[in-house]
Amino acid sequence: MNNEATPPPRIVVGIDGSEPSKAALRWAVNQAKLVGGAVDAVFAWDYPTPWHGLVPPTEKEPGDYEEHMRKVLDHAIDEALGPGPGRPVALRTISAHGHPATVLLDAAAGAELLVVGNRGLGEFREALLGSVGMHCVQHAPCPVVVIRGSGHGT
Fold first, then answer.
1. Domain segments of the chain: what residues?
2. What's 110-129 look like in SS3?
3. What is the sign of the dihedral through the CA atoms of 44, 111, 149 and 89?
4. What is the pLDDT at residue 129?
5. How many CB atoms lie within 10 A of CB 29?
6. What is the average per-residue pLDDT within 103-125?
7. CATH superfamily placement of domain 10-147
8. Which residues pair with 25 in a beta bridge?
9. In the chain, which end has fewer C-beta atoms inside a 10 angstrom radius, N or C?
């Protein structure tokens, strides 16, 4: 007989502050409640890069920028779920430097489910499914759920 406890099912959700990503987080938390799982809320970011001089270079040190991005993630989670503590499931926050699709696919390794919003903060707002979601659907190591956000917090 194996005495080791089985870890709860892990659900990874991508969050970028967009309404669809907040809806995805709410869905992932509800699903985790149903299956006795835990949620990893993943936020990918990159340092701002100048594009023909249109983006001013940041004066923040890399560590300062990482801390700022973590605060952006925490704020998005609070907007989606309300301020913690007392969340209905175990929620781990992951703020990682890198391309969102790569960060999400890496985080989804070994997960039961990957949840993404149908589109994020990218430029192509009219697309039914954004490029990150499309890449995740095509390459994820686990099932993917795409949540269509209404723009009204659902």
1. 10-147
2. CCCEEEEECCCCCCCCCCCC
3. negative
4. 67
5. 24
6. 83
7. HUPs (3.40.50.620)
8. none
9. N
Structure-token pair, residue 99: 């391309």
Please name the residue that has the structure tokens 């890198």.
Answer: 98
pLDDT of residue 19 exceeding 50: yes
Judged against a pLDDT cut of 60, whether residue 121 lies above it is answered with: no
Are 27 and 19 within 8 A, CB to CB?
no
Beta carbons within 8 Å of 116's beta carbon, 6+ residues apart: 13, 14, 21, 24, 104, 132, 133, 136, 144, 145, 146, 147
Global pTM reads 0.83
Structure token pair of residue 151: 């723009």
The torsion angles phi and psi of 4, rounded to 5 degrees, stand at -75, 135
- pLDDT value for 1: 55
